[in-house]
Design brief:
The complex is a heterodimer of chains A (112) and B (114). Chain A is an all-beta fold and 112 residues long. Chain A is 0% helix and 53% strand. In chain A, the strands form three sheets. In chain A, strands 2, 5, 6, 10, 11 and 12 form a six-stranded mixed sheet that branches. A four-stranded antiparallel sheet of chain A has the order 3-9-8-7, with no helix packed on it. Chain A has a two-stranded antiparallel sheet with strand order 1-4. Chain B is built from no helices and eleven strands.
Chain lengths: 112, 114
């Protein structure tokens, strides 16, 4: 079956620090990959996506590249802000499975 | 102008009670979902409906029953509530079954069973 493994948190950073959240996946088919973000007290929002190998998704200064050879989709941001404090979820969808499979989520706290 | 709305936002109830959570989307989407998020933020799909037809039914106790009166609404009814049902429940929707990845989430309903 499909599964997503992402680095455990919590992660605490200072403003303007570099953020990386690792994500690897296992899929039976050819999945699409996503990062969702959940701000405190809110639902999940799609942050970025990539649908084929070597695609780079980007949004709000965040980037992730679909690496088929390493089955990874690591999230990066070069300079975080306090407003980036949230829980980040890596996810995949596979048309054979007809659903999103989420990683366990990584809580990120950015301090001023 | 809320895209996916849920009511109530908070629900506190006692063990053994029956309760419902309502979800509505005004995006014109064909597919709706219910997710459960536990205290460690782990998110798991429970059900999915496409045009009022049940397409995903994960291993969920029979006490949970989804109902979709039309494709804009997906309600979740829970019978005989247990302590372990305490969680945040999220409703979501997407345009059509094959574009399920672009899901739009509601704000969540925090259920506390005492």
């Amino acid at each position: 079956g499909n599964s997503v493994t992402q680095m455990e948190g919590p992660v605490t950073l200072s403003e303007e620090a570099f953020l990386t959240i690792n994500c690897t996946y296992t899929a039976t088919g050819y999945p699409s990959l996503f990062w969702y973000v959940q701000y405190p007290g809110e639902g999940l929002q799609l942050l970025l996506k990539a649908t084929k190998a070597d695609d780079k998704g980007s949004n709000k200064g965040f980037e992730a590249t679909y690496r088929k050879e390493t089955t990874s989709f690591h999230l990066e941001k070069g300079s975080v802000q306090v407003s980036d404090s949230a829980v980040y979820f890596c996810a995949l969808s596979d048309y054979n499975d007809y659903k999103l499979s989420f990683g366990a989520g990584t809580t990120v706290t950015v301090r001023a | 102008d809320t895209a996916v709305s849920q009511t109530p936002k908070y629900l506190v109830t006692q063990m053994g009670n029956d309760k419902s959570i309502k979800c509505e989307q005004n995006l014109g989407h064909d597919t709706m979902y219910w997710y459960k998020q536990d205290s460690k933020k782990f998110l798991k799909i429970m059900f999915s409906y496409n045009n009022k037809e049940l397409i995903i039914n994960e291993t969920v106790p029979n006490r949970f029953s989804p109902k979709s009166p039309d494709k804009a609404h997906l309600n979740l009814h829970i019978n005989s509530l247990e302590l372990g049902d305490s969680a945040v429940y999220f409703c979501a929707s997407s345009q059509e079954r094959d574009s399920l990845y672009e899901q739009y989430f509601g704000p969540g309903t925090r259920l506390t069973v005492t």
